[in-house]
Amino acid sequence: VTVSVLYCVIIMLPKCSPIPLVRKMFSEQRERLAKAMGNPVGEFALYKGGGDVPRNSSDTCFSWRQESYFFHMFGVEIMDCLGAVDLRSGEGIVFIPRLPDEYAVWMGALPTPESVKASSEVEHVYFVDEAAAALKKHGCTALHILDGSNSDSGIKVAAPSLDAFGDFDVKTERLFLVHTQLRVVKTDLECAFFGALNKVASAAHVQVMQQCKSDWHENQLEAAFLSYCMAAAQCKCLAYGGIAASGKGPAILHYVDNNRKMESGDMVLVDFGGELHCFASDITCSFPCNGKFTPTQRTVYEGVLAAHDAVLESLKPGVSWVDMHLLALRTMGRMLRDGLGVIRGDATDEEIEKSGLMAAFQPHGLGHLIGLEVHDVGGYIDGVTPPRGKTPMTSKLRTARTMEENILITVEPGCYFNQVTLEAALRNADQSPLLVEDALRRDEVWNFGGVRIESNVRITGAGCLNYTNVPRKVEDIEAVMAGTKAWPQ
Amino acid sequence: VTVSVLYCVIIMLPKCSPIPLVRKMFSEQRERLAKAMGNPVGEFALYKGGGDVPRNSSDTCFSWRQESYFFHMFGVEIMDCLGAVDLRSGEGIVFIPRLPDEYAVWMGALPTPESVKASSEVEHVYFVDEAAAALKKHGCTALHILDGSNSDSGIKVAAPSLDAFGDFDVKTERLFLVHTQLRVVKTDLECAFFGALNKVASAAHVQVMQQCKSDWHENQLEAAFLSYCMAAAQCKCLAYGGIAASGKGPAILHYVDNNRKMESGDMVLVDFGGELHCFASDITCSFPCNGKFTPTQRTVYEGVLAAHDAVLESLKPGVSWVDMHLLALRTMGRMLRDGLGVIRGDATDEEIEKSGLMAAFQPHGLGHLIGLEVHDVGGYIDGVTPPRGKTPMTSKLRTARTMEENILITVEPGCYFNQVTLEAALRNADQSPLLVEDALRRDEVWNFGGVRIESNVRITGAGCLNYTNVPRKVEDIEAVMAGTKAWPQ
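Output (structure tokens, whole complex):
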């Protein structure tokens, strides 16, 4: 690859400004857990940290990631640890692996109880092989361990091996439920870190927009985003498989190939978030790769933006997430009817909703809890949250919760012209009569692709706070892409 | 993060030029395997492809990677496949998962036997649930499966579940050994692809050197490298945890934190390789972050370069990798004695080698096989290759093979001032008398960090071919970093 100036585009890498991790975040979490468990004497919660994961049978491992429940309690980023919380006091104990001295040649100074205690501010640190004896010394008689499954993936949370803990009473009933619920409602320190990460990710999205050239391959958008987050804030990777989709690609909800050459006139959808200290951000922007919306692109985009804005105006403690989802679909339905004309002009909001038609245009839920995972835990908890809906319109929702102050959640309405779901709608006896097939099959609509607008917000006492700061209005996107407007303003 | 021009550096993203994957590569491999197995009638090799790997219990998976033995035979990058090779003819059969139609909304057009056959040029494609019946139809009576462990990681290669294959005779004795040996000696098509990938990775290293500013954080070097490879050739990730180490960091062999702020005067070591279609590249460059070598930096650097060049001049079929390793250590020992003066001037090459002292300066082996993994398989095979050495000087080698034409291997001598290994040498009765402790403990030596120079080469009929094209001479590095010389020339 010969680099010539003719073939180059310029990416501005920012000055590196690491985001500080405030250690008090974790002692606060331990105190919250102890309190939620009733501050019992002699009872401890025991956690297993994340291990290294090889790629198949090779000598190479995936980029290491701490396990989130463990991280939530201790904030320690060392592999193969155990951790315990004294549920009376909230004091933390971390058990680190005892590594051979020679590992120092490969890893640098090895972690010691002293160094980990100093850097993590966890109250006590021992080696893993001292765990049972240390717990006894600290007055532990009973161990609570996590016993439950992630409501998105269905995967059971890993619990520590109990071989060395035979002397303790083991309790599996409460910890998963209580700790999962605790992770749903964030602390101010968590929100502050999340906000700082969103600021970086927002700036990275602005860079992507500003640098985008209409003859790029999609993966160049990914390269620009990731390099910005790595350089600006030392993110090691994206929080999830990033999506850079152009042309018809945005209609494929998990398009991660990101390898198509774009063409002038394409709408582009970029869904990227940096990950830092286990925290995820998750932002989607949609824009025309040549920087100028066509009338049809503007109509669809502004319909999705209206849905996004309507939800943000309505979000507050006490509202049902299902209602927000239906509000977004109703708002987009009006655009499809009154703006694009692909739904019959005489169809009422109620008829559209009753038919389930909007699930063909937005086959995913309005958003999801976010925090230490991009799809954070606690969307559904048996006996605690409302159960998953059963209609095509609601069954895809990752939570049906009533909003509470300090929930972090994504708001991500989307309107897609997915030919699989639209053909099914055209065959559906309830939905087909509402559609104007000729209008829907026009090339500029049928092959439109799609638009998603996704922001990361915090539920506040009075409403919500949007941590995402990217141009959203058509005029702002066009001006930022043309270089005539700076962002943030 | 406010982006201001003052705080920005400019990274040139190249035009995207995807590297074509020639499908004949894989039918050739199947024919090679069939021949090596003796072209038996009715016997098939059965492989298990790679599955998705979740990050702990979350809903997020690591970046998906095909399993390398499977990829080597079929070149298919779809998860959860099985694959079979008819060992009489070398014909391939791939079995793809049968996915629900609704997945098309998330993944786009689902793979079908027809589409996979057309794109992979594998002779036959069925669904996984048809595997046993299809194998019978194709005349299979016996199945060979992989049964062995990776000689670097010790991890057993995954074999397919045999629940559905009860009617076939199962053979575990030969396939692992034969296939592993086959992967060691590359085909021309493999070498061509590897060379093209190295060209991109080399250009990315040149960009890193050219853009490096002496007040960068190390992770900005990683961002610049990765974004170049993603943009230039659609690499999805690095082939391994990349190293960007400055100051004393290069003495830590697996330093992957990459988060330190550099200081003018630091030597920098960057060990990065892009991964594409399972192929790895693995290149290390060492340079002063301010673009100008000090006399001490020049001495050490040129000693390592002399070792690198001496090995490249000697590498050819028939030479022992152990001898190449000893040649590199001997060459660097002379620099430490005659150039840097940290080994006594009257010490002979033989005395230095006999003492094992050089294992303190280079605690790793000279290099490793490379191909579909960064540490490719087949370094040691019981009964086939020379066994692992037992001395501190040779036991870290990842292979002790005699070189053969079309082996791909890294040549990576390094000289490190690692305080753990050097303190041990100073306490070692055989090694300490050879060291000039005062000279060794001088600040500019003791805190030097280290230098590694790593190239990726192919053993040819007459010698070797270096696929890595980066500035190596001190003058060239200084000129490229100063912007007074273009590279490649």
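Chain B has 16 helices and 18 strands.
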